[in-house]
């Protein structure tokens, strides 16, 4: 059981406090309720660009990292289609350094031409290196618009095109900040060996006078139900052919989310999984295969992907794969197999929660979903899954009409 307290400032800032008496460290995790799904379709990549801009200094502090490093701390951040998350880890006695830095850039980020041009160049280079000039790098740039036709999940976090970042104007950047980087669009999680009243006083001291801002009201276009099978083939300079089967699944808040997760482990979670033992080990059609879920807050994707073995065809893969999917939808999963999957997930969760930073990030994320206590309810959500529920979800999941398939064909095999 991970214990926590919560309180909210008058400006709308939600605060989660988790006390850990065993650690000499403090974690300051700041979750902004904004991701790539909140972007204008003609100005994508802004959430990720802003992740970089937040380290470009504020009006008062030209270098975010230097004071934190002098205090013995470190920081980092990540952006997804749903959220932008920043975190600082430092000695507990220096917690105010992190609170000072985080609150200062929330209040008065520096909007300078130099910072914008510097971070623009960094993001453009990342776009090229990770997505355009790397084998299989543009898979998500191709797969997302194949699977989503209306919802903004149709573009990756990096954005649709490099030109959207190249053409970003200062006015656009400022508008993005004013819309999303406000206290009432933020969840702050503090973890460490402190007293609750101490944390309340520190948070009020550093964040209390920041204007609340206008709460962003999210109105996203809902993705219509997919009615027909979709397939796309792209040719690239890659070592071998690859495949990406994408099936629509429920949103993150659905109780079926955990069933989808356990199905993904059953099919392609490790070397004891069904697809590995059948398609890779027995038939040797692939050299690699796995299944996983995106974990998206809105309707997500259940994916099966891998690399083809030399001399094997996509047609051979199709034949065996759909037979395996038919098997998992038509048979009741043995209790022994289901229990093994549950135990594996429990072990993985317990290992993750050993880290103070992981606990802080997870508490903030569950609070965004509706209740930070969700972190304590997950294990029961997995352990209570029955064989019948497993079969029910599998039957609705693996329909060919709801499948989007991206094939990456190696030019040397074309």
What is this entry, summarized?
The chain is of the alpha+beta class. The chain contains 15 helices and 11 strands.
Mean residue pLDDT: 94
Q: SSE order, as H and E?
A: EEEHHEEHHHHHEHEEHHEEHHHHHE
Fourth-level CATH superfamily of the largest domain: Metalloenzyme, LuxS/M16 peptidase-like
CATH level 1 class label of the largest domain: Alpha Beta
- Largest beta sheet: strand ordering: 1-2-6-3-5-4
Structural class: alpha+beta
Based on Cα principal axes, name the global outline: globular
Please name the CATH architecture of the largest domain: 2-Layer Sandwich
Number of helices: 15
Approximately what portion of the residues adopt beta-strand conformation?
15-25%
Task: Report the helical percentage.
Answer: 40-55%
Q: Can you walk through the features of this model?
A:
It is a single chain. This protein is of the alpha+beta class and 414 residues long. The chain contains 15 helices and eleven strands. Strand 9 (286-293) and strand 10 form a beta hairpin. The model has no long low-confidence stretch (mean pLDDT 94).
Key words describing this protein structure:
414 residues, alpha+beta, Cytochrome Bc1 Complex, Chain A, domain 1, 2 domains, 6-stranded mixed β-sheet, 5-stranded mixed β-sheet, 15 helices, 11 strands, globular
Annotate the secondary structure layout.
Blueprint: E1 5-8, E2 14-19, E3 25-32, H1 46-53, H2 65-70, E4 74-79, E5 84-91, H3 95-108, H4 113-132, H5 139-147, H6 162-166, H7 170-180, E6 186-192, H8 196-207, E7 230-236, E8 242-248, H9 257-268, H10 274-282, E9 286-293, E10 301-308, H11 314-330, H12 335-352, H13 356-369, H14 374-383, H15 387-397, E11 403-410
Parallel strand pairs: 2-6, 7-11
Antiparallel strand pairs: 1-2, 3-5, 3-6, 4-5, 8-10, 8-11, 9-10
Helix pairs in contact: 1-4, 3-8, 9-15, 10-11, 11-15
